[in-house]
Amino acid sequence: MSRERKVASVGRPTDAEAWVRTPETEPSRDPDGSRYTARLTIDVTPEQRGRIKVTAFKRGLTVADMLRDLLAREFPDSDGDAR
To answer: Residue 16 falls within a domain, yes or no?
Structure first.
């Protein structure tokens, strides 16, 4: 007896701004409680992951802190301020 697996498809949002601003779940807080955070998952190659981890270690940073700084530089607030 075989079972067919049903895969749910997810449609693309029609309004990107509303979709981005809609929280998926209750937001989490940084340990110091200064700002809300949202989790972002990306796929990288094992080689990229290794280079990222080694670079963060050499700089004395966590991978998360290093990537947050990079993203803040690349995608500053609309007024041009990165923070």
So the answer is: no
Q: Are 77 and 83 in contact (CB under 8 A)?
A: yes
Grouping H, G, I as helix, E, B as strand and the rest as coil, residue 46 is helix
pLDDT tens track for 21-50: 666 555 555 565 556 678 889 999 999 999
Q: Which domain holds residue 64?
A: 40-83
Tens of pLDDT, residue by residue over 49-83, are: 999 999 999 999 999 999 999 999 999 987 655 55
CA distance linking residue 67 with residue 53, whole number of Å: 10
Q: Against a cut of 0.90, is the pTM above it?
A: no
Residue 22 domain-assigned (yes or no): no
Reference 70, options 78, 50, 62; nearest CA is 62
φ/ψ of residue 28, rounded to 5: -95, 165
